[in-house]
């Protein structure tokens, strides 16, 4: 009927968390190879992660590093070589050079294009299909109508984020480390990481008149996310009517328990929507979701406007 | 022989760049090239710029480096075919779907991969070569060794900005949609209304350079520090001989939104420097004073521009 997926960075989080609401798990943090025991950069941990997910009857997708420099290609190649020996249900790429590496290795597993793959049109999706891409994550700037247009005109699976922070920008180095006391002594990637990203970091900017911040962004070190949480819980019926089927909850950077709470709400809401039930009272679900979102909720760009606005159902 | 690629944000700037010896000038059609409308050109002006370039022995590239909306894809291609007929010898593009379409419709044109594609490694270069591109713009964080490594991996032409920077900060453009998350405005009549919304990445207006603004940053509950999200790039010079030896075929000067007088002086300066390198110079230290003066002007103009953009951002409702 539909697929609901989320992301988990490493084995510890996978074992300790409750991801039972999800049909599929994207394994790994594509933004930071230094993230502790990150599936995306630890070939030796792939098999254990894959087995854990498959044992629960879920699909396992492996995320590959999004912005490899020339020095990263060798280890990324090692991760790919290991992954191709394992029955992953798909590999996710963000970088077109990495996509080419998969083709060079005659990858037969389905390939998903990740959020930093810059997918804006159906014609681009058609080019990527020639390289083995079967699913695309359209750039978050696209409206729902544009997302549907791509799905229909490129005959490709489209991943539709329904909840969580929106990835806005990525970097090859760690912003937290660069601006910390530790960063003054070491450089990102040289082994001196003190994992300060385990604490929430925020970027804030006030209005020119000195009043408190009206712009807020969350920073996970190598990736900046929206301050607000994208929330589409009120729009399940619309998503179902549009023929969209693959939904995603962004979990990277959130506290333990976030994916479980959000997943339960969306599993219920989407199941009802796809069964054609009348829209329920969303107030309790919205209260819970708002309680998990420090800076509030938004609808992203789905309804054509600045990403941090919340439009709501009406 | 390496080429000097210069900006033409207006017809006046196009003429100045050609007069000062640019090998190629680049122009952006209204709504299709990631710049405010003041730095883009009408189709009539582009035709005139192409004629002026041709008469002056230069070429003209058209920047179509926004990401099309699915609805707008055909319009991109139609415009490109028309520009080619009007004398454009190539295009600067970002989207690989558009790249394929242009290669099919205009087989002999020169396709540059825009910085918006976010190339980060030599495998990317090989991908874009496969996709039909002739030239890629290299990240301005790369050094000579990395340029040589991509030269060995692909026969694609190599272009660099005339910038140097340090390996820190957010990646821009191509991997950033911060601006439109925070602020967004609709089309102005002068830009030609189109049936989609979005950021400068898509041709809508405009990137407010929020990364250049002052932000407070810190862990929750801790005292924040005031920072910008990216460090400014500096005009480069000392790297020129090494880059030419490593196989860079095209040097790109940014600045369609800068004053014409500044672009005129910069084209003249880099024309002289590149000619010296081609003639065998390996040390350009004698230009240090002039470079320092140009860098100062560049930074002052940039500060003014960021202030203007942030004022505009404040005026629009989220």
UniProtKB/TrEMBL annotation, chain A:
GO terms for molecular function: peptidase activity. GO terms for biological process: proteolysis. The keyword Hydrolase applies. The keyword Transcription regulation does not apply. Keywords: Hydrolase, Protease. InterPro entries: Peptidase_U32, RNA/ubiquinone_mod_enzymes. PANTHER family: PEPTIDASE U32 FAMILY, TRNA HYDROXYLATION PROTEIN P. Belongs to the peptidase U32 family. This is Putative protease. It comes from Aromatoleum tolulyticum.
Automatic annotation (TrEMBL), chain B:
The keyword Cell division does not apply. InterPro entries: Peptidase_U32 (IPR001539), RibuloseP-bd_barrel (IPR011060), RNA/ubiquinone_mod_enzymes (IPR051454). GO terms for biological process: proteolysis. It comes from the Bacteria. One of its GO terms (molecular function) is peptidase activity. The keyword Mitochondrion does not apply. Keywords: Hydrolase, Protease. This is Putative protease.
